[in-house]
Specification:
Length: 270
């Protein structure tokens, strides 16, 4: 006897993969009294057994209403967790984050915030992704190497897994407040420039306009300061001199400093 397969209707929301898109999806879900099974990016393949699709139209006013409602219901730490986790740019975040927000609004008034309820799979997923982003932020602060241009501007090129540049700008502004600098994300093609007064988000019009090589992060020779060439050589010499070959532990080194950071590090380009 062949057992019957019982299939429940699957509802999918399609979004534009922005935070406002997720918030707009929350607005639609409560307005339509629905609970979608998943959020999928517009233009991406739908699940095999999808029965109904609702296209979410991102609207700033609706997203702001949801965000304002969240601010009244959860702590500042929970708000930061949601916004920072979105910088991961991980597609697998969107459905758990959507569910997380919906659960916040379904809680009775005065109920304890769910942000510490790690037995909830959605809370745990969002929290773990948040931790990954914050870990990447820490590594960016540790592993950025700056080069000095002839005009006195310091350039640091990075290519992080997550979009953490907005999270490290204040650190470098405080630490290098007396020096103009440009911190550039080669993967996302944008950066932040500090002119000793304020930090500005910048982009370049095509790769030809870049004063550095995207693959290596090195400033062009005609732009690189003569002093910096000397300091780079001195730093490489120092790095080699303090290395005790008998104590080398490649496995530990890779754990502390993953290989993907090496290409922009002066001491690793001997």
């Amino acid at each position: 006897m062949i057992s019957q397969f019982v299939h429940e209707k699957m509802l999918i929301y399609t979004i534009d993969r922005t935070l406002d898109g997720v918030l707009s999806a929350v607005f639609d879900a409560f307005s339509l009294r629905q609970q979608p099974d998943a959020l999928v990016g517009k233009g991406e393949p739908l699940p095999l057994f999808c029965d109904e699709v609702h296209e979410v139209m991102t609207a700033d006013d609706r997203a702001q209403r949801v965000w304002t409602g969240l601010e009244k219901r959860v702590t500042k730490e929970a708000m930061r967790l949601m916004s920072v986790s979105f910088l991961s740019e991980m597609p697998e975040l969107h459905t758990p984050l959507f569910n997380y927000i919906c659960k916040v609004f379904r809680q009775p008034e005065g109920a304890r915030s769910i942000e510490r309820n790690f037995s909830d799979p959605d809370v745990l997923t969002v929290t773990n992704i948040f931790r990954k982003v914050m870990h990447e932020r820490l590594r960016m602060m540790q592993f950025v190497r700056f080069q000095k241009a002839k005009d006195g501007t310091y350039l640091g090129v990075v290519s992080p897994d997550h979009n953490v540049l907005p999270l490290v700008v204040s650190h470098f502004k405080d630490r290098f407040g007396d020096q103009p600098w440009l911190l550039y994300d080669a993967k996302r093609r944008y950066g932040f420039y500090y002119d000793l007064q304020e930090v500005t988000r910048v982009t370049f019009q095509g790769e030809d306009a870049l004063p550095f090589d995207l693959d290596s992060g090195k400033l062009n020779d005609e732009v690189l300061s003569d002093d910096d060439k000397l300091f780079q050589d001195l730093w490489r010499t120092y790095f080699k001199a303090i290395c005790i070959r008998e104590r080398m532990n490649p496995k530990k080194q890779l754990s502390d400093m993953p290989r993907r950071y090496w290409k922009y590090m002066t001491e690793k380009n001997l």
